[in-house]
Design goal:
The protein is built from 5 helices and no strands. The chain starts with 5 loop residues before the first helix and ends with a helix. The chain has one domain. The chain is mainly α and 149 residues long. Helix 1 packs antiparallel against helix 2, helix 1 runs antiparallel to helix 5 and helix 2 packs antiparallel against helix 3. It is elongated. Helices cover 85% and strands 0% of the residues.
Length: 149
C-alpha cells in the first residue's frame, strides 16, 4: 500500500474535510462570541452539512466495508476495533445532536431560543471533538506506518 493508494487518498481526504469542519466550528464559535448569532448558526449548519456528506459518502462505507469485517468481527478487543467503535458511537451522537440543534434553530432571526440549548451545544462540541480525536487516532493506526516509512 502506498500513499497514492485509493484507500489512503480517501482516508486522507476525509481527514482533511474534518479539519476544515473543525475550523468552521472555530469560526462559528468566534461569531457567537462577537454576538453575531445568525452568522454563528449559518456557519454551524454548513459545517453540519459538510460533515454529513463526509459521513454518508466516506465514513459509513469505510466502516461497514472495511473496519467491521476486517477488525471488529474477527477481534472486537483490538485497539483498532475499540477506537473504531467508540469513534463511530461518538460520531453518531455528535451528528444527531448537531442535527437537532440546526433543526431547532431553522435559520430563525430570533436567537432567544438558542440560549436555552447552550448546554446541548457544549455537549455536542465536546462529543464531536472527542470523535475527531478518535478519527485522527484511527487514521494514524491505519496510515501512520505507511506515511512514516
Amino acid at each position: 500500500m502506498s500513499f497514492l493508494d485509493p484507500y489512503t487518498l480517501i482516508g486522507t481526504a476525509s481527514l482533511i474535510i474534518q479539519i476544515v469542519v473543525f475550523f468552521m466550528l472555530l469560526l462559528g464559535y468566534q461569531s457567537k462570541r462577537k454576538q453575531k448569532f445568525r452568522k454563528h448558526g449559518i456557519v454551524m449548519a454548513i459545517a453540519l452539512v459538510l460533515h454529513l456528506v463526509t459521513i454518508l459518502v466516506i465514513m459509513i462505507p469505510s466502516f461497514t466495508l472495511a473496519v467491521v469485517p476486517e477488525f471488529i468481527i474477527p477481534d472486537p478487543t483490538m485497539v483498532i476495533s475499540l477506537v473504531g467503535l467508540i469513534h463511530g458511537v461518538t460520531g453518531i451522537i455528535a451528528v444527531v445532536l448537531g442535527g437537532y440543534l440546526v433543526a431547532a434553530w431553522r435559520f430563525k432571526t430570533d436567537s432567544s431560543g438558542c440560549f436555552k440549548r447552550k448546554q446541548t451545544m457544549r455537549i455536542t462540541i465536546t462529543v464531536w471533538f472527542l470523535s475527531l480525536i478518535l478519527g485522527i487516532v484511527l487514521y494514524a493506526l491505519f496510515y501512520g506506518p505507511l506515511l512514516m516509512g
